[in-house]
Amino acid sequence: MSRPALPWPERYRPLRRRAEVAFWAVLLLVQAAFNSVVTLIDLRSAGRPVAAWEPALWELSSVLVVGLLIPAIVAFERRFPLHWDMLRRHLPWHLVGSVAYCSIHLAGMMALRHLAYSTMGAEYRLNGPWWAQWGYEYLKDVRTYALIVSSLVGYRFLLLRLQGEARVLDTPESPAIPEPSPATGPAAPELAPSLPVQRPERFLVRKLRREFLIAATDIAWLQAEANYVGLHVNGHDYLVRSTLADFLTQLDPARFVRVHRSYAVNLDAVAEIEPLDSGDARLLMKDGSTVPCSRRYRSALAQQGTAS
Fold it and tell me: Is the pLDDT of residue 239 over 90?
């Protein structure tokens, strides 16, 4: 009997990283080619003779630095996501980020141009003082930075709509505290029995108008994603609107351990701990995925694993 076909978001997930890299590479190369032709035509129309390779070099040096900066912008946007509820708090950080982006972009592409010109026995000269060049580039770079961040926010929103936002329908019940009987009266605080914390064994999750019953022990690992926490369960992802710290309070601390600022794992789902030269580690999960483990949490992970 053939297995049912996976939905599109599940089939896209293994290809996501390559698709994202290919998208930015194609977009930047097309932009470089288009701008090179336009710049060459404009300069020759203005009576400024330039070699055909010069506009191409200018644009390629620019998009190369932009391409190298995109992962940093992605990480920065995850750290300071732009949502309506935190726009006023995070927008100033992105203004600072745009200044840093422009400065690195300008310094990087100028260095590449000077290097390329020197290898050809020529000299690359700026059109005016560096501070005027920086101001001119910033007017362009701030728009590019805003477009990149807007694309990231829109892309995440699209994936969320396609994947479907999950919502936990039931919550752990508070333990009932017995009423004191008239005969015995209220129990003294020091003699009151300590009640165990009640945590749910299963979560009823609604996603794309369907309901799923998820056992807490089936959650392999969790990932913080802005205002959401991603639950990775048997090869499926469920995005729940919560913080990682809040959701971990509903899970057994003897089984679920935080291993990174943005990740937590189920100890029973860890297959191997691979140390890295930096002092961090890479966790190889039984489902074939990998989870980063920072050095800050590595010793606690080892102690927890030994205790369990």
Answer: no
